[in-house]
Amino acid sequence: MDARTVAIEALKQDPATSSLRRSLDFYYGDPARDATLDAFYARFLTAGDLAFDVGAHVGDHTGCFRRLGARVVAVEPQPACSRALRTLYADDAGVTLVEAACGAAAGRIPLAVNTANPTVSTAAADFRRAAQGAAGWRHERWDAQVEVEVVTLDALIDAYGVPAFVKIDVEGFEDAVLAGLSRPPPVLSFEFTTIARPVAYRCLDRLVGLGFDDFNVALGDSRSLLLPDWVPAVRMAERLRALPHAANSGDVYCRSGRRRP
């Protein structure tokens, strides 16, 4: 086994990170998925670029961005996930780990942790309320809470530079993350869920105000843009509004006039 595989197996056995077993099994060790991920993000990143991975979880996107030759600032507030990221990327000088949540202003906030499914841990109380009783979400339980530091995207830009691409995946807290951004990167993505569509609409409004003018979407984990042509925000909002509940989630991709990948 290579060093990464050995580290993953150790993380799965470590009581401090064993809750991440399902995520580690899903996101690592599948070369076909890695190749699909790399091909998709190669349109946004090239060697030498800087990327922000906001809501890095166990770092599969961080790994993808590194394979493309980009430097990565991985932002992750969950202690177990941060421990995993430190282990997996300890010897990689191209990865900087920021153990914090991203939000509208610096400070501290409570993070609701889903210990059985840490990938949906969230700082958004409205998101948890929307999940209650919703098809596909009824079994989710946020059964722990930690207080975490908050950093803004603007502060990250001050510290590390303007990224070529920002990925935001923070379970219904995406609008708060964007509220802390005043200097837009060329390309950005944010996750949406069909149980919390108003969050996505607020994100679109914010991004238009920041100068983003082209939008596309990928559903689920497909890493395939749904629309043949990029569309304005109003049409993207219509697309999201028309999605059936069963679509569940996806990522909206946004680009400004400064770059057309």
Q: What does this 3D model show about the protein?
A:
44% of the residues are buried. The chain has helices spanning 3-13, 21-27, 31-41, 60-67, 79-88, 125-131, 153-160, 174-179, 197-209, 233-242; strands at 50-54, 71-75, 95-98, 101-102, 107-113, 144-151, 165-168, 187-193, 212-219, 249-256. The protein is globular, with a radius of gyration of 17 Å. It is 35% helix and 22% strand. The chain has one domain: Vaccinia Virus protein VP39 (Rossmann fold), CATH 3.40.50.150. The N and C termini lie far apart (37 Å). It has 261 residues and is an alpha/beta fold. Keywords: Methyltransferase, Transferase. It comes from Micromonospora mirobrigensis. Pfam families: Methyltransf_21.
Task: Please describe the structure with a list of short key phrases separated by commas or semicolons.
261 residues, alpha/beta, Rossmann fold, 3-stranded mixed β-sheet, globular, methyltransferase activity
Kindly summarize this structure in a few lines:
InterPro entries: FkbM_mtfrase, SAM-dependent_MTase, SAM-dependent_MTases_sf. With 261 residues, this protein is an alpha/beta fold. The chain has ten helices and ten strands.
Outline the fold blueprint.
Layout: H1 3-13, H2 21-27, H3 31-41, E1 50-54, H4 60-67, E2 71-75, H5 79-88, E3 95-98, E4 101-102, E5 107-113, H6 125-131, E6 144-151, H7 153-160, E7 165-168, H8 174-179, E8 187-193, H9 197-209, E9 212-219, H10 233-242, E10 249-256
